[in-house]
Write a structure and sequence with these properties.
This protein is α+β, with helices and mostly antiparallel strands. It is globular, with a radius of gyration of 31 Å.
C-alpha cells in the first residue's frame, strides 16, 4: 500500500464533512464572518431550508480583489495577525469555511471595500475557482451558496425536511443575535420574513440591550420572569439573565451559553447551571438561562471542536464556582418571587358562570359559619424571626381554631398581604394592596423549613446520632480500607466508623438528619463513590436530599386547619426567605391575581 497525498479538492470535502454538517452550519460560519468584518446589519435569505439557496449580505469592511482570491483558499484568514492560537479575538479563525463550502456547493462571493471604486466577485463550484470579475456592489460582502452538497449527493440523504433544516438555521441566527444586540439581523425564508431583529434601541448599557433583544427572541414572558446575573472574579466576568425556578420547561433547549461572544454547548457550563438550581427544580425540569462569560483569551481554548461548539477552560473549577455562586446569589435576591405564568395560567383556567349553581346554597351556609367566628388578636407569627413551635411540631389543630380579622392598613404594607381565609384546609387566601394571593400552605412551609435546615447546617455543622446497636457492614477488603483511611473526614460529615477486621467496618454514629436510614446501603454507596471519584460526595448529596425529605414531612400538611396567626406567620416568613416562591421540587408556592385581572373576568374592565 503506497502512501500518497490527497488531492486538494478531496481535502476540502473532508473538511466540509466536519465544518458543514447541514445548511445551518454553513449559514453560521458565513454570519460569523460578517460579524468579524464589523457589520452592523446582516440580511439572510434562505430557500428550501437552505438546501437550494443561502444568501448572506452584510455592510462590513469588505474585501479587495486580491483578498477575495485568497479567501477561498484553505486556511486563509485575517483573524490571526500574530499567528497565535492562544490569542483568538474573532469568531472565525480557521480559514476553512469558504473553501469547504465551495467544495460541496456553488459558491459566489461578491465584495467591495470603502476605498474601492467597484466591487469584485469570485465563483467556486465543486472546488473549481473562477475570478475575480468586476461587479457593482455597495460596501460590504454578499455570499451566495446554491445547491449545497451537489458535489457530494450522499450527504443530501442525511438532511431532514426543509422545515426542520430551517428551524436549525433560525436557531443558529437567534443564538448569534443574542450575543450581538447592536447588530440588526433579518432572515427571509421562501419569500416570508422569519426574523427581523433591529439593533438595540435602549439608550443604556449593553445589559439593557441584551434584555431587549432576549424579549424579542424568547418572548415577553422571559423578560417578565428573568433575574439579572452579574459577577466577576479574577478577570472572569459573568452576566446575563436566568428565569425564576417556577418559570421552567421540560428540556434544556432554552439554555443559551456564550463564551467571549461565541455560542457554545459546554458540559461544564450546563453542569454548573444544574448545580445552582438543584434545590429549586425537579430533575425533569430545566430553567431558562442566557449567560455570557467573558474572560482573557489565553484562559480559554476555542480550538478543540471542528464547529467551535465546545471550549476548554484553563481553570475550570474557577469558572464553575463563579457560575454556581453567581446564579445562587441571583436566585436568592429574587426572594419569594414566583413566575408570572403561574397567575396567567390560573386566570386562563377560570370560567364565567351566568346561571345559579345548585351548590351555592351549601356555600352560603359555609360562608355564614365562617363569618360568625371570633376575631384573632395576635398576628405577629414569625415577625420576630422565630417560628412558633406549633408550625414545626405539627399537631392536629382544634376544630375551633381562631379565625381572621385584618387591620385594613396591614395588607397594603406587606408584599404577600394579610390572610383572609383558609380554603379546603390547604390554601391560604390573602388580600394584597392590588389583588389577592393564594398560598399552598404545605409547599410554602416546606421551603421555609428546608431553608432553615440549610442555615443550621452551615452555622453549626452536622449533628450526630449514636446508634444504640453499632452496625457492622461487610465490604471487600479494598473498599473497607479506603473508607477507614477517610474516617476522620467522614466524621466531620456526621458518619463515625472504624475498621472491624479485614473486610468489615463498624458504624457507631450517623448524621442525625438521616433519621431511620439504611446504614449498610449508605456505606456501600459511599465506598463505590470513593472508588470512582475518591471524594465523599455521595454523603453530602444524600444529606441534601434528606433535608428536602425532612422538610416535606416536618411541614404543615395539606388538610390541617390553621389559625390566623399561623397563616400570617407563613406569609411574613415567606417574604424574608430566599426562594420562597417555589417548593423544594420547583412547584410554585403561591399564585398572585391582580385586581385588574379579576375585574376583567367579571367584565368590569
Amino acid at each position: 500500500m503506497t502512501i500518497r497525498l490527497l488531492p486538494p479538492n478531496l481535502v476540502n470535502q473532508i473538511a466540509a464533512g466536519e465544518v458543514v454538517e447541514r445548511p445551518a452550519s454553513a449559514l453560521k460560519e458565513l454570519v460569523e464572518n460578517a460579524i468579524d468584518a464589523g457589520a452592523t446589519r446582516i440580511d439572510i435569505v434562505l430557500n428550501d431550508g437552505g438546501r437550494s439557496l443561502i444568501v448572506v449580505t452584510d455592510n462590513g469592511c469588505g474585501m479587495t480583489s486580491q483578498e477575495l482570491m485568497v479567501a477561498v483558499d484553505r486556511h486563509a484568514t485575517s483573524k490571526l495577525p500574530a499567528d497565535d492560537l492562544l490569542d483568538i479575538k474573532f469568531l472565525g479563525f480557521r480559514g476553512e469555511a469558504l473553501p469547504a463550502i465551495g467544495s460541496v456547493a456553488r459558491l459566489t462571493v461578491t465584495s467591495r471595500t470603502a476605498n474601492s471604486d467597484s466591487g469584485w466577485y469570485v465563483v467556486v463550484a465543486g472546488g473549481r475557482k473562477d475570478g475575480p470579475v468586476p461587479a457593482p456592489h455597495p460596501r460590504g460582502t454578499r455570499i451566495e451558496v446554491r445547491d449545497i452538497f451537489f458535489a457530494t449527493p450522499a450527504r443530501l440523504k442525511f438532511l431532514k425536511s426543509a422545515q426542520t433544516e430551517l428551524s436549525y438555521a433560525v436557531d443558529a441566527i437567534e443564538r448569534l443575535a443574542m450575543a450581538y444586540p447592536d447588530i440588526t439581523f433579518t432572515l427571509t425564508a421562501d419569500g416570508k420574513q422569519r426574523l427581523n431583529l433591529s439593533a438595540g434601541l435602549t439608550q443604556g448599557d449593553l445589559f439593557d440591550a441584551h434584555l431587549e433583544r432576549l424579549a424579542v427572541i424568547l418572548g415577553k414572558e422571559f423578560a417578565a420572569n428573568a433575574v439579572p446575573v452579574a459577577a466577576e472574579r479574577e478577570g472572569i466576568k459573568l452576566y446575563g439573565y436566568i428565569g425564576v425556578p417556577t418559570f421552567s420547561r421540560g428540556n434544556t433547549l432554552a439554555q443559551y451559553m456564550f463564551v467571549n461572544g461565541r455560542p457554545v454547548r459546554d458540559r461544564l457550563l450546563v453542569g454548573a447551571v444544574r448545580a445552582a438550581y438543584q434545590d429549586f427544580l425537579a430533575p425533569n425540569r430545566h430553567p431558562y438561562v442566557v449567560l455570557f462569560l467573558d474572560l482573557p483569551q489565553r484562559d480559554v481554548d476555542v480550538n478543540v471542536h471542528p464547529a467551535k461548539a465546545e471550549v476548554r477552560f484553563r481553570d475550570s473549577s474557577l469558572v464553575r464556582g463563579l457560575m454556581v455562586g453567581a446564579l445562587k446569589h441571583a436566585l436568592a435576591e429574587a426572594g419569594h418571587r414566583a413566575s408570572t405564568t403561574v397567575s396567567n395560567n390560573a386566570l386562563a383556567a377560570f370560567q364565567a358562570h351566568t346561571g345559579r349553581s345548585e351548590g351555592f346554597g351549601a356555600y352560603s351556609a359555609y360562608a355564614a359559619a365562617y363569618q360568625s367566628q371570633a376575631p384573632l388578636e395576635d398576628q405577629q407569627g414569625f415577625s420576630d424571626g422565630e417560628a412558633p413551635s406549633s408550625l414545626f411540631a405539627v399537631a392536629p389543630s382544634a376544630p375551633d381554631a381562631s379565625p381572621i380579622e385584618v387591620v385594613e392598613a396591614d395588607y397594603r404594607s406587606h408584599p404577600l398581604g394579610v390572610a383572609r381565609a383558609q380554603v379546603h384546609e390547604t390554601y391560604i387566601v390573602a388580600q394584597t394592596g392590588d389583588g389577592i394571593v393564594i398560598v399552598d400552605q404545605h409547599a410554602a412551609h416546606e421551603r421555609l423549613v428546608y431553608e432553615r435546615m440549610k442555615a443550621s447546617l452551615a452555622a453549626g455543622g452536622i449533628a450526630r446520632q449514636i446508634l444504640l446497636i453499632p452496625e457492622v457492614v461487610e465490604l471487600d477488603e479494598a473498599s473497607a480500607a479506603r473508607l477507614a483511611a477517610r474516617a476522620p473526614e467522614l466524621a466531620e460529615l456526621g458518619l463515625v466508623l472504624e475498621a472491624f477486621g479485614g473486610n468489615a467496618l463498624v458504624v457507631r454514629e450517623v448524621p442525625a438528619l438521616l433519621g431511620e436510614t439504611d446504614v449498610t446501603g449508605l456505606v456501600k454507596d459511599l465506598a463505590d463513590d470513593l472508588a470512582s471519584h475518591d471524594e465523599a460526595l455521595s454523603l453530602k448529596d444524600r444529606l441534601g436530599d434528606v433535608c428536602g425529605t425532612l422538610a416535606c414531612h416536618g411541614s404543615v400538611r395539606a388538610g390541617r386547619r390553621l389559625n390566623g396567626a399561623e397563616m400570617n406567620a407563613i406569609l411574613r416568613q415567606m417574604e424574608i426567605t430566599p426562594h420562597a416562591g417555589q417548593c423544594n421540587h420547583g412547584r410554585p408556592t403561591y399564585v398572585e391575581l391582580k385586581l385588574k385581572d379579576i375585574e376583567r373576568l367579571f367584565g368590569r374592565r
